[in-house]
Specification:
By secondary structure, the chain is mainly β. It has one domain: Beta-galactosidase, Chain A, domain 5. 5% of the residues lie in helices and 44% in strands. It is built from three helices and 22 strands. The strands form three sheets. Strands 7-8-9-10-22-19-18-13-16 form a nine-stranded antiparallel beta sheet, with no helix packed on it. A hairpin with a 2-residue loop joins β18 and β19. The longest helix has 6 residues. It is globular and about 55 Å long. The structure holds 6-O-phosphono-beta-D-glucopyranose (BG6). The site of 6-O-phosphono-beta-D-glucopyranose (BG6) has 9 residues, from β20. It is an enzyme of class 5 (isomerase). One of its GO terms (biological process) is carbohydrate metabolic process. Keywords: Isomerase. Belongs to the glucose-6-phosphate 1-epimerase family. Its EC number is 5.1.3.15.
């Protein structure tokens, strides 16, 4: 069965062996197993902490949580009641449909509209659709945001939001490098004062490492990244996610996360395409689509982490 629904999750299986699992809780992709052009054996590409809650009690520590409508602590007055990274990653989404089911890809759509719980914290009408497509050697995740307001006021009843795919890539943290961010502007959230956090820095490293606590928001980033370690790597392509966040808590911050497994920070890098500097804006009836495509790089070998 290429698409199976069981116990709060959707499992996609590609005829050539790749698979993906998506929790309805948060529409969180919690597993993506894929081979590559050289080795067809599917291997896990995403990191999920063994201490992560996968029962819907807390956003998942790993996989690909969906961040919407705010990134980090709320900065927009309309988001004031929301918690860090918004409600999409901790709301139960609805299985909508199978979009495609053939050798080119197995694809499903999940949706989220305001629930009573969301409406207590957030008044804007919206419709989110998340399309996850599994190909032989690729995983695409597309987030569609629609402003469903019927109001015809002037100025328009705009939906202003941030969105990000918080992708935890399984990789040896001490060796992984992210390209090409050199020359770009970033905001360093590990700085201790608000003033230092709001001053842009210029990236001078050809390949960005995460050997120490890293929480960097690259603004207007290139949209195509290589995440490379000795013997392996992935490409991430992003559309309409103009920014990218590179995060690894290291032991310093990782050991304080209750749902992070011991040493888990040594086994991943988060490379997170997003629209997080400023706000995307939709007038009533308009839709915005952000896309992420993950592909193992040629020469990639399975990781024993
Ligand atoms: O612990 P959370 O809420 O899942 O967030 C993890 C991290 O997510 C990153 O995207 C943020 O830039 C970090 O500041 C944050 O610590």
């Amino acid at each position: 069965m290429p698409v199976e629904q069981k116990e709060g999750k959707v499992v996609l299986t590609h005829p050539k062996g790749a698979s993906a699992e998506i929790l309805l809780y948060g529409a969180t992709v919690i597993s993506w197993k894929s081979g590559n052009k050289i080795s067809s054996t599917p291997v896990e590409r995403l990191f999920v902490s063994s201490k992560a809650a996968v029962d819907g009690s807390k956003a998942v520590r790993g996989g690909i949580p969906v961040v919407f409508p705010n990134f980090g602590a709320p900065a927009h007055p309309e988001h004031a009641k929301l918690s860090q990274h918004g409600f999409a990653r901790s709301a139960v989404w609805t299985f909508d449909s199978i979009v495609m089911d053939n050798e080119a890809g197995v694809s499903v759509r999940l949706t989220l509209t305001p629930t009573p719980d969301i409406m207590v914290q957030y008044f804007r009408p919206f419709h989110l659709a998340y399309v996850v497509t599994l190909a032989e050697h690729q995983l695409s995740t597309d987030l569609h945001v629609k402003n469903t307001s019927q109001t015809t006021s002037t100025p328009p009843d705009a939906l202003e939001f941030q969105a990000l795919l918080h992708t935890y890539i399984r990789a040896p943290t001490s060796e992984v490098l992210v390209y090409p961010l050199s020359g770009g502007k970033y905001y360093d959230k590990t700085e201790s004062t608000e003033e230092a956090r709001s001053q842009p820095k210029e990236e001078t490293r050809t390949g960005v490492d995460v050997k120490k606590f890293t929480d960097s928001v690259y603004e207007n980033a290139p949209g195509k990244y290589q995440v490379i370690w000795p013997g392996g790597g992935l490409e991430i392509k992003a559309k309409n996610f103009k920014d990218v966040v590179v995060w690894n808590p290291s032991q310093e911050a990782g050991s304080k996360l209750a749902d992070m497994e011991e040493g888990g920070w040594e086994r991943f890098v988060c490379v997170e395409p997003g629209y997080v500097r400023g706000f995307a804006r939709l007038n009533p009836g308009e839709t915005w689509v952000g896309q992420q495509v993950l592909t193992p790089l040629d020469g990639d070998r399975p990781l024993a982490l």
